[in-house]
Amino acid sequence: MTIAVRTRPSLRFRGKSFLALVLAPEVPLRDWLEDLDEVAKRSPGFFSGRPIIADVSALKPSKSELKFFLAALKMRDIRIIGLEGAAAAVLDADMPATVNGGRQAGDIDFPDLDAVALPATPAPPPAPVTALLVEGSVRSGQSIIHTEGDVTILGSVASGAEIVAGGSIHIYGALRGRAIAGCTGQSSARIFCRKFEAELIAIDGLYKTADDLGPKFHGQPIQVNLDGDSIILTTLD
């Protein structure tokens, strides 16, 4: 009797966690889309290459309304990887897959284009566990994402580059790209840089673009922190 011996390795499944941006449209939808266009205009490329979930719970769309919304995002080159809050009856096979069970990370809200706010959840923020040190500069098109703690850049951050940290961001050179600190809900996070020329800064979901900030702090060494729902910039000695 011959016994077959399996030599091929067993099928293995692995899991990974990714940080996704959640867009939560509100009614009237056309006004919300106009605000979205204004944000994209102020920070070109902000939505490019990002995993994005659309939470349509507030819209409660019909099938035709959902198709219009998805088409409107496609026209803006915003690609949706998943839908949340849509009734099963309005979904078609060619629409993004439904998702649920993710950890709440705030809603997209554009009531005031001087500050794009993503309100933090009431859950206590996780404490930083580790720090990431980058020995050199971050080039245009590069993204450094470290959600477990602080990020320190010994060089500069070029225009078109992005730093995302769960804790604070320390930049020993110029900040010309985007710096997003406290991305996991840490409102005490700060941003420090030797030369401030940023395209966008954010702490704990509160965003400001270069147009919002004006020329007052341009080229200066600064720190950025939150005071309630306000982004505060101060010069460093």
What does this structure look like?
Keywords: Cell cycle, Cell division, Septation. Cell division inhibitor that blocks the formation of polar Z ring septums. Rapidly oscillates between the poles of the cell to destabilize FtsZ filaments that have formed before they mature into polar Z rings. Prevents FtsZ polymerization. This is Probable septum site-determining protein MinC. Belongs to the MinC family. The chain is of the alpha/beta class. It has 2 domains: 21-113, Alpha-Beta Plaits; 132-235, Pectate Lyase C-like (3 Solenoid), CATH 2.160.20. 13% of the residues lie in helices and 27% in strands. The protein is elongated. The termini are far apart.
